[in-house]
Write a structure and sequence with these properties.
Blueprint: E1 5-10, E2 14-20, E3 38-42, H1 45-55, E4 60-66, H2 70-82, E5 85-90, E6 96-102, E7 108-112, H3 125-133, E8 135-140, H4 150-155, E9 159-163, H5 175-180, E10 183-187, H6 194-204, E11 209-213, E12 219-223, E13 226-230, H7 245-258, H8 263-277, H9 290-298
Parallel strand pairs: 1-4, 1-8, 2-6, 4-5, 8-9, 9-10, 10-11
Antiparallel strand pairs: 2-3, 6-7, 11-12, 12-13
Helix pairs in contact: 1-7, 7-8, 8-9
């Protein structure tokens, strides 16, 4: 079978409105003056993963539901500008959108508009099957309606990854993703015991690798029943925004893993890409390029 796509990214296409606020949590006030401006741009989790993978030279394709609306036009324009293949299935409810409040230290608070979708939304089975069978690997966002596509993806023979983001380890919505993927990413931010959650994912699902990112503490990698800590990389410039850091980590990890690096070495790639992303304002969609990533991973 010919697999002309290195990575198919399923879901996670949308638009964010970025607001830089004086502090988080934001105290109540009648109004705030935002001197840095308020900007709406294309780019949610799936968009940032596919941008990161493309910047590293992988052949990528993005599949999701998009509305016939200004937000959808922004997503389409971003993919055209970056030369990334996009299959957009019409979404009558509109394109996914969110508002991200970003504090001075780069932390963010995201407000997701859940009205841009319906419980019975589905991606066309024939489209999912054809693209998955043409792909070496599929990265699945946890946005609706990707869970319903997981059985088809498993049948395709492609390896799967997913990012559970700030899962608390209990919410049942995330479990189908956690148990279907070969590589599982998640944030340690909401976990009382990250190792316990990571081992539960590995025990109950099919994951070969589970990776918990921990911000300035680096990342923890569970592979072959062994937990390894990978230190955080030093950001190459001032940290301004954590938006997209996890997506950058996942893209760089997958680049290395698909090129047969070890899980721990792949996580090192991820920490470097994630640190780079923290120095890029959320209003920008610039991903680390392969030459820079390889230079930094080669530096002792």
């Amino acid at each position: 079978m010919s697999r002309d796509i290195d990575v198919l990214v399923l879901g996670g296409a949308g638009v964010d409105t970025i607001v830089y606020v004086p502090e988080l949590p934001l105290p109540y006030a009648d109004s705030y003056m935002i001197d840095s401006g308020i900007r709406t741009r294309a780019g949610q989790t799936g968009d940032f993963v596919v941008l990161g993978l493309a910047a590293l030279g992988l052949r990528v394709h993005h599949l999701d539901l998009l509305g016939d609306d200004p937000e959808g036009d922004l997503v389409r324009a971003l993919h055209r500008e970056k030369g990334i293949a996009l299959t957009a299935i019409p979404q009558p409810a509109g394109t996914k959108r969110a508002v991200n409040l970003v504090g001075p230290d780069g932390r963010r608070l995201s407000l997701y508009d859940t009205s841009r979708g319906h419980a019975d939304d589905r991606l066309p089975e024939a489209t999912v099957r054809a693209l998955a069978e043409a792909s070496r690997h599929v990265h699945v966002a946890i946005t609706p309606p990707c869970a319903e596509a997981l059985p088809l993806l498993r049948e395709s023979g492609a390896t799967l990854s997913t990012d559970l983001h700030d899962w608390d380890g209990e919410n049942p919505y995330h479990e189908p993703f956690a148990h279907a993927a070969d590589v599982v990413f998640l944030s340690a931010a909401a976990l009382a015991d990250p190792e316990r959650t990571m081992r539960r994912i590995a025990d109950r699902g099919r994951a070969e690798v589970v990776v918990a990112t921990a911000g300035a503490k680096g990342a923890y990698v569970l592979a072959d029943d062994e937990l390894t800590h990978v230190p955080a990389a030093t950001p190459p410039a001032l940290v301004v925004d954590s938006n997209g850091a996890g997506d950058a980590f996942a893209a760089a990890f997958l680049y290395a893993w698909l090129n047969r690096e070890t899980p721990a070495r792949s996580a090192q790639y991820g920490t470097i890409a994630g640190a780079h992303a923290c120095t890029i304002p959320a209003t920008d969609t610039t991903a680390i390029r392969l030459d820079e990533l390889l230079r930094l991973t080669a530096t002792p």
